[in-house]
Every structure is written in C-alpha cells, then in structure tokens.
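Two folds, back to back.
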Amino acid sequence: MPTARKSATPTTQPQGAKRKSGRLLLPLGLALFAAWIAVVVVGIAKEPDPGAASPQQLTSGVAETLHKGDAESLARYVNGDGADTYATSLVDKVKDSGNAGDISVSRLGEKQVQMRAPHLCMTWDIAKSDGRLFLDPVPPLTSVACPAR
C-alpha cells in the first residue's frame, strides 16, 4: 500500500494563514503609498509663493527674514538660480555686521529696496518675474547712497 510522502521541511503556519497575510500586504502597501502622496501634495500646497505681490510686502518680508536670520525664507524673495547661496551669504554678512535689531529695510521709490545694518548698507533693484516682485541680487547701477548714522 502506498504511503503518503512527508515533507522534508515542516510548515509552521497553516496554508490559509499564508494566503491571508499575502492578501493584506498589497492593500497595506497601496494605503501607505497613498498616504505618502497625500503628505507630499499637502506640503507643496502649503509652500508659500515665492516673491511678493507688492513692494510693501517685499520690504516687510525681507525685513522680517533678516531680523530672524532665516536664509531659507529670505531666498524666497531673491530672484535667480543662486537665491539660496545669496540669501545665506547676506544673512551671514548681517550677523557679522552687528545687532540684528538694528536692521532697517525701506523702499526707495517703487524700484529699489535698501537695507541698513550696523557697518553695512545694501540697495537692490526690484525685479518682476511671473507677476511677483523679487530682490535683484545684481547691484544696481544707480542707487541712493546710504545716509550716515
């Protein structure tokens, strides 16, 4: 009489349990992927628009970021590809110049913004790109000299 062959490796789980956990793996992976996509989309949607809508907003935004010493936020207001590097360099210069509380940022008409800090004065032209206003990191040819303090 033929006898049933026994398996060389014993199974620790019943066959039904393996199928059940395998079936749950795909929906769980899809749910995690959908949650990750949702987090990315919400993060992008909450990202503030670069630049400013008006010269007043540009001036106040630049002043606020310089007072905080926040180069990442300042880069939003700088026009061009090297905005991050320029903003980091500017924040470092302002910190090296003295007390951050002594920083003043003001508009010079509708076309320029001027920043004054102890031992440092800079003027930027206002550049327009995609309907938003930015600081132009290229030094202006005609700028108003900083008055002595």
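---
second:
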Amino acid sequence: MEPQPTTGRRLLVVERAYRGSVETQFADVLYLARELNRQQGGLDLLLRGLAVTFATAADDAPARTVRIGRVELDTLPDPRASLRTLLAEGAGVWAEEADLTGLGTDPDRLLPGVRRARPDSRPDWSAYQGVHFL
C-alpha cells in the first residue's frame, strides 16, 4: 500500500534498535508507532542507525524467546512483524541506505514495501506536521 501524501502526517525517526526486549516486551517503540499511526491518522517512519535492522528480511532473526533462570519469556517484540503491520496500515517506512551499508546489510534485503532513504529520495521533513525522534 502506497503511503498517503504527508499533509497532516507526522514523521517518526527511530535510531536505536533494542532498548531491552525484556523491559519493552509489551510496549516497544514500534508498538508506540502503530498506536500513533492509528490515533493520529497516519505517519511515516524513518529508520536510522541500528534500527535499520528492523527492516531487513534477515535469516538470522533475533531469538523469539529468552530464558532467565527457570522462566522462559516468549512475549518479546517482533520488529519485522510490527513493520509489516505498519505498512499494511498505510504507514510509509524508509531505511537509511548509508546505515544499511555501514552495517554490512544488503539494501536489497529489505522487507517488501520498505524504501531505501537515499540523498535523492528520502522523506522531506519540512512537509510533515511534526518530526519526532523515538
């Protein structure tokens, strides 16, 4: 689904990938983005830094469970699933190409619908109602 024009939309910029999966298992940064998208009537997301790894269709996906002592947590966030949902709900998603390259990630392995943010094709921050760093 192609994102709508930016008029009235907000741009969320996410640069840090994991802030503690156990601590954020019920409300990670992409959960917040999904809620803001729903409540604000649309947004776009620019992934930079380590957060570009959220958008990769990697074979080495993070573990979905973690064991702490005798307790196994299986409610960890799944950033790739959250991005797929955001895209399906009309959000535009970009991954900074320079960060993908810097991390040794092949830019052609992005999830379907995620666009590479290049100097000539990235979100125009001045066209948004607001730009927020999460």
